[in-house]
Amino acid sequence: MKLSAEIRRTDATGAGVGNALSFLQTQDGVLKNADAILTRMSELASLATDVTKTTSDLALYQTEATSLTAQLTSMITEKFNGISLFGGGTLTVQTSQDATQHVDITQAGLATTTVTISTNALATSALSTVTAAIQTLADLRATNGSEQTRLAFAGDMLAVNKTNLEAANGRIIDVDVATESSQLARLNILQQAGTAMLAQANQSTQSILRLLA
To answer: Is 9 part of any domain?
Structure first.
């Protein structure tokens, strides 16, 4: 019974690890899109440092940069099953059925990057800001990848533990069945022997009565 309970808990823990892994994969998908946005923003900032560009050109660059900032801000509010992907905290994932082991995963602290590139000078400053944001994003994706790896190994270990628990449980059940089968066979033999002895005793009694008659 205890082994069966452990197997059920292992299943539940494995499901939790799988969900946490999906959380990180979803988070990384958003971070990947954020990387594309920041890369484009850095390109716009570089274009805006060109002294040959007119005020109208710079205004167009700024319009696109503002739109990209809005999109980035929207992405930061993304959630997984109601849990914020970018809350800036940590979530503790249990990785063993007895709750003695766990892995902390990060709700990446992704911030909105606002750039102003309406002049050459502002564009130069914005380029540094975006470059720093790209580095921060790279760090977040590295952390995400390492946490995914840990959870994947934890999931594999749970699967191995479940297999071993099922095998142990099966051996116990097999032993019980074998023992009960042997006991049943023994009792059947004893019952048959007793029945045969009783029948023989009855027959002997009848023979004696016939002789007396």
So the answer is: yes
Distance CA 205, CA 199 (A): 10
Indicate which CATH number applies to the domain containing 126: 1.20.1330.10
The answer to whether residue 188 sits within a structural domain is no
Q: Is the pLDDT of residue 209 over 90?
A: no
Q: Model confidence over 150-177: pLDDT tens digits?
A: 999 999 999 999 999 888 888 777 765 5
One-letter amino acid for residue 210 of the chain: R
Backbone conformation region of residue 55, classed left if phi is above 0, alpha if psi is from -120 to 50, else beta: alpha
Q: Taking the CA atoms of 52, 57, 59 and 65 in sequence, report the sign of the dihedral they define.
A: negative
User: Is residue 105 within 8 Å of 93, Cβ to Cβ?
Assistant: yes
Number of domains in the chain: 1
CB 148 within 8 A of CB 21: yes
In a domain, 94, yes or no: yes
Burial of 55 (0-12, 13-18, 19+ CB in 10 A): exposed
Decide if 210 is inside a domain. Answer: no
- Residue 142 to residue 155: CA distance in whole angstroms: 20
pTM summary value: 0.78
The pLDDT tens digits of the residues spanning 18-42 come to: 999 999 999 999 999 999 999 999 9
